[in-house]
Design a protein that fits this description.
With 161 residues, the protein is mainly alpha-helical. The protein has 7 helices and no strands.
Amino acid sequence: MTVPSLADYKTPRPWLTLGIFLVVVIGVGALIGTQSIPGEWYQSLAKPPFNPPNWIFGPVWFTLYVMIAVAGWRIWMVDPHSGAMKIWFAQMALNWAWSPVWFIGQMLWPAFAVIVALLALIVAFIVVARKYDKIAAWLFAPYLAWVSFASLLNFSIAALN
């Protein structure tokens, strides 16, 4: 494991790689978001009193996706074949799977299983990534907080319905 030096960032390649991470993470997230918009079914569900307004999800996820992309990029720059990178890809797959399971499939408990697995992978990424890049690990802290809250919300809505 070699930590990139300042000289490594003086070429276009790392910045192109960052651009790819940002476009893919935000782009796929946006595509999934536009295909799984909360509709009448979601509106009809009983929700706990701490359910946030729908408008908050877009800005929160955009911000988190930027942080997730940067964290993945930072680990990629250190070691693209690392365990941390494998965990990063696995958590992205579960992240992108949750909305279709919840909103399109309307499967509350399977979505809860997905989000709990996602939560475990976020924690695993933080633990493993710390060995490679502490900033990348810290970039996942707000993501951990949000997905913890989302897990409680998912559980509560499933239990109420």
